[in-house]
């Protein structure tokens, strides 16, 4: 495609995207624009399906939901790009190490074979865990090779430092991939991983697992009246409150938009309900002010649904029960806590 043609097409996508964003009240941020530019271009079928389904079910799409779509579809691509770059760096460093060891007078045949096997494990579709495994193998083998011959030490020290930097980068991207960029809480992906693991543990060992769903009441009104920057301020205050209410072993996550989850381990349903109510009271007591004008936002309230996992019911059943309990609280008039009835198994 010629540059002029590309520029013309990009301008057309922009003309199509902006009216849709205005229609749904989506803030003109780079992240939101990326979502809707991609949507009107039709190049990301999964994104288009997700948007169409949400609009079909709810009739609209909020700014925060658009931001969630960006994190879901674009942050993942960024993470995959970083992982690809790490695989390429890992191959380069590993080839250097193998060259050093192969030319070393005192290097063992076993070290060369082990490093060659690690090199063979590299392929374009490696997962983060597989990259981590190869890095650990190479670090171990490199230290062993260094101890077997002083002639290699200086060159391998440099390569070893690069490998350790790669491992740190890998750990950093793994942490970032599971962190919500606005609130710094765990994100939906991290929640999905944890809830899958703890429910399996409960199936096996019978540990008590409780789930709290919380949703800010009338949050759209805050965004409409005060703007999305103030809405973000509220989300950060609420996130800090939730995080401060739980123990280190428990997980607080931003589930999406203004909805949050708390996974509680070794906690009875009675104590989980008590905790949710304490959080509800604390949030309702806060008087948040706009940072720019010091204007009070009035009472901020939150509704909660609480469910206890019953071994063998499955994750989907637990999520549905907690969600139904949350909307029981909404129907009660909001600013309430409801306990989910047990599943029918």
Low-confidence stretches: none
Order of helices and strands: HHHHHHHHEHHEEHEEEHE
Structural domain tally: 3
Q: Quote the beta fraction.
A: 5-15%
Walk me through the structure.
The chain has helices at residues 3-23, 30-41, 45-58, 63-103, 109-120, 128-148, 153-177, 188-205, 219-226, 228-245, 269-285, 315-331, and strands at residues 209-216, 251-256, 259-265, 287-289, 296-299, 302-308, 337-339. It has 345 residues and is α+β, with helices and mostly antiparallel strands. Helix 1 (3-23) crosses helix 2, helix 2 crosses helix 4 and helix 4 runs antiparallel to helix 5 (109-120). The model has no long low-confidence stretch (mean pLDDT 77).
Q: How would the blueprint of this fold be written?
A:
Blueprint: H1 3-23, H2 30-41, H3 45-58, H4 63-103, H5 109-120, H6 128-148, H7 153-177, H8 188-205, E1 209-216, H9 219-226, H10 228-245, E2 251-256, E3 259-265, H11 269-285, E4 287-289, E5 296-299, E6 302-308, H12 315-331, E7 337-339
Parallel strand pairs: 6-7
Antiparallel strand pairs: 1-3, 1-6, 2-3, 4-5
Helix pairs in contact: 1-2, 2-3, 2-4, 4-5, 4-6, 4-7, 5-6, 6-7, 9-10, 10-11
